[in-house]
Amino acid sequence: MPKHVALLRAINVGRHTVKMDRLRSLFEALSFDDVSTFIASGNVLFTTARAGSPGLESKIERHLEGALGFQVATFVRTPAELAAIVQHDAFSPAIVRNAHALWISFLKTPPTAEARDRVMALACATDDFRVHGREVHWLRRATSNEAIVSGAALEKAIGAPMTARNITTVRKLAALGG
Fold first, then answer.
1. Which CATH number is correct for 3-77, 3.30.70.1280, 3.30.70.330, 3.40.50.2300, 3.40.50.300?
2. Which helix (H) or strand (E) holds 104?
3. pLDDT tens for residues 85-135?
4. Could you tell me if 96 and 102 are in contact, meaning their C-beta atoms sit under 8 angstroms apart?
5. Is 44 in contact with 27 (CB distance < 8 Å)?
6. Residue of 80, 169, 91, 97 whose CA lies nearest to 137
7. What is d(CA 45, CA 36) in angstroms, rounded to the nearest whole number?
8. pLDDT for the residue numbered 40
9. CB 127 within 8 A of CB 148
């Protein structure tokens, strides 16, 4: 059965706290197999015979909202898709090494041309962006406290829900799923 990784938005942020054993049991209730979590920020690995990210995303979102009482935007990728994201050099390795962090923002669908333009217009001395498929590679040259662009501003520019993970987490998820 194919492996998948669900990246959940707003799990264990603010007032939405969900223990990982409960999250695993919620995914198992969907008849997913080999369910595991990686760090307490909403990363769930699982296998299922069902194919297709949009269908899986909708199924998970409906189930989590019913069980938890709040919406949980869900972004599903295969381990191969995560590996391709890691391999994509949106920025040169030297630039990434000298930056504070590289974040990957996950979207459900590729952004429109207008949304891409709005994202690219956010680029500044502390933040730079590259849109590639259903992801936005976000280079942060400064800490979150010093940065000019916030996650909320990026999401507003995209005009759709997103969730972000640092490149180290994406690498580990790709390795765990492979």
1. 3.30.70.1280
2. strand 101-106
3. 999 999 999 999 999 999 999 999 999 999 999 999 999 999 999 999 999
4. yes
5. yes
6. 91
7. 5
8. 83
9. yes
Q: Is the CATH number 3.30.70 carried by domain 87-167?
A: yes
Using the 8-state DSSP alphabet, how is residue 84 labeled? H
pLDDT mean across residues, the chain: 93
Q: Which residues of 42-77 are buried (b: 16+ CB within 10 A; e: fewer)?
A: bbbbbebeeeebeebbebbbebbeeeeeeebbbbbb
**pLDDT at site 146:** 85
CA nearest to 152, candidates 141, 167, 164: 164
The verdict on pTM exceeding 0.85 is yes
| Whole-number Å distance between alpha carbons of 143 and 40 | 22
Tokens 């942060």 correspond to 140
For the stretch 168-178, pLDDT in tens is: 999 999 999 77
Identical topology for domains 3-77 and 87-167: yes
Distance separating alpha carbons of residues 80 and 51, to the nearest angstrom? 14
Spans of all domains in the chain: 3-77, 87-167
> Strand order in 127-132's β-sheet?
127-132, 135-140, 101-106, 163-166
